[in-house]
Each structure stands twice: as C-alpha cells, then as structure tokens.
Amino acid sequence: MAAIGFIGLGNMGGPMAANLLKAGHSVTGFDLSADAIARFTEAGGRKAATVAEAAAGADVVVTMLPAGRHVRTVYGEEGGIIENAKAGALLIDSSTIDVESARAVSAKAEAAGLKMVDAPVSGGVGGAAAGTLTFMVGGAPEAFEAAKPILEKMGRNIVHAGGPGNGQAAKICNNMILGISMIAVSEAFVLADRLGLDRQKLFDISSTASGQCWSLTSYCPVPGPVPTSPANRDYQAGFTAGMMLKDLKLAQEAASTSGAATPLGAEAAALYSLFCNAGHDGVDFSGIIRMLRGKE
Ligand code: NAD
Known about the structure:
Layout: E1 3-7, H1 13-22, E2 26-30, H2 34-42, E3 46-47, H3 51-55, E4 60-63, H4 68-76, H5 81-84, E5 90-93, H6 99-111, E6 115-118, E7 121-122, H7 124-130, E8 133-138, H8 141-151, E9 155-162, H9 166-195, H10 199-206, H11 214-217, H12 241-258, H13 263-280, H14 288-293
Parallel strand pairs: 1-2, 1-4, 2-3, 4-5, 5-6, 8-9
Antiparallel strand pairs: 7-8
Helix pairs in contact: 1-7, 4-6, 9-12, 9-13, 12-13
Bound molecules: nicotinamide-adenine-dinucleotide (NAD).
Nicotinamide-adenine-dinucleotide binds at residues 7-13, 30-33, 36, 64-66, 70, 73-74, 95-96, 121, 124-125, 239, 243, 246.
C-alpha cells in the first residue's frame, strides 16, 4: 500500500481521500480549512501542518484544488510539492484548471525528476463519494500507468487522453459540449411549451431521434421524463451553474490562446454568466431553463 499525501480536502477531495483510506492506503492530508481537516481525520486520515509535510515521504501526492493559481502555488512555490516530494514520487493533480497551468506545472515537475499527470474528473460530489468518477488523464505513458491503480480506488473510468495538459483539454471540451447541449435542450422544451407540444411527447420522440443527447436523456431540464434529474427537485445541484461557468470560461481561454473558433461555447459562457450574476450560481446548471423561459 502506498503512502499518499492529499492536498485540498474539500467537497471533492474529502470523499476521494476517504476512498483511498478505505482501500487501505495511508493518507496524510493538508487543507487551509480546519473543517475539511476535521472531516478527513474522522475518516482515519493523518493531518499534516503544511503542504511540505503532506508531500515529504509520500510515494504519491494527490491535489484537488479550486483553480490554476492554487495549483501553481501549491506545486511550484517555496515550500511546495515539487520542492519537497521524494525522488521518483508520482504527482496527480485532479483539480479542473487551465491547460497552460497544467502544462507549466507538469514541466516543472518533470525537470525535478518527478512523474506527473493532470487527472481532472467528471462525476461530481456523488461520484467522488461513491468512487465512480471518470478521470481524464494527461501525462507520459509511464506516469499514466503508475497513476492508474491509485485512480481506480477513486473512480470507475480512467482514460488516458495523451500528453501533459490533455486531461484538462478533454475535460473542458466535454463540458463545453455539455453546456451548449443543455441550453439547446432547454430551448427546445421552452419552444415546445409555447407550441402546445406535450413535454413527455417531445422527450419520447427526441430521445430516440436525432436530438438525442445526455442533457436530454440523463439530465432532462424539465420535471417528469427523467425522474433522477435535478429538475424534479427544484434544480438542487448536482453540478452547479457556477461550476459550469468556470469550465466554459476555461474553454474560452483555451480557444482564445489556441485560435479555435467556438462561437456557441462563447454564447453558452455568456448565458451562464447572466444566470450566475442573477444569483443562481449555486443552482444546478440545468436550472438555466428558467432564465430561458423568461420567468426569472
Ligand atoms: P472545494 O472548494 O470544496 O475544495 C477545495 C479545497 O481546497 C478547499 O477545502 C480549500 O480550503 C482547499 N485549498 C485551497 N487552497 C489551498 C491551499 N493553498 N492549500 C491547501 N488547501 C487549499 O472545491 P471542490 O468542489 O472540491 O472542487 C475541487 C476541484 O474539483 C475544482 O477544481 C473543481 O472545478 C473540480 N470539480 C468539482 C466538481 C464538483 O461537483 N464539486 C466536479 C468536477 C470537478
């Protein structure tokens, strides 16, 4: 069993670390939040006082942090992971961050003789607790092979997306599809209502026709057709509109630096900005249908 350092024990990192503990690994964790640390120690983890302490002596270091700037600091600065990790350690960053930061941190780790993968997830807090996350992994093949058995303790689908940063690239491309398709499906239901077309009828037809997609069949934004979708519980998240906006902004940043044209991605980011600015960032992202309906 590996000695694992885990930094960032929040909504996602907390349950992920708990699954590593359940699998029998010894996990030493650090977070800036005392509450997060308390939940982690209750689950059987050992508390570290600093990033350096969590990293030193670990065979594997996992991070689950809010954004690129936190990842750059926690890995790259004085007292950070790269400076303190033992020779040959494996570093796994599962935060969702910009591709550029992921590649910069990975290059720094590699220059220090460390293996690193970016391994952002989809599956949300429910998937983190159940150990059923999907990991989209970027990094050298040897780093991916080393990370796989650890990631398998926290997730179900572990996919190698290519070299450093490609895990993040896969995540933002996927979530750009998701944001755009949720708006498309929502607009179709708004139009159907206006035209007097029954919602269930639209669902039955489109779910087996060319309009079929995950936003319709697994996460339908109107109550009724898919009993498990957040629409049936007043759009309680799930995956918040704020998280969706974060990922759409990352996609727009990447489109701008790479020169890709993503006009619908830009429109989706603008619509989710409006929705979040109206005070709905904590609502499930499928709740955007309410704004499109013109009711709020
Ligand atoms: P969170 O805010 O609950 O957790 C982040 C944790 O990092 C916090 O506990 C915070 O105290 C800690 N932290 C921040 N800076 C730190 C530092 N310098 N040192 C140590 N700890 C530090 O966020 P979350 O929901 O767990 O999300 C984490 C990452 O996962 C984000 O990048 C997010 O985009 C991604 N993600 C979240 C979800 C979701 O549904 N919540 C789904 C997929 C991906």
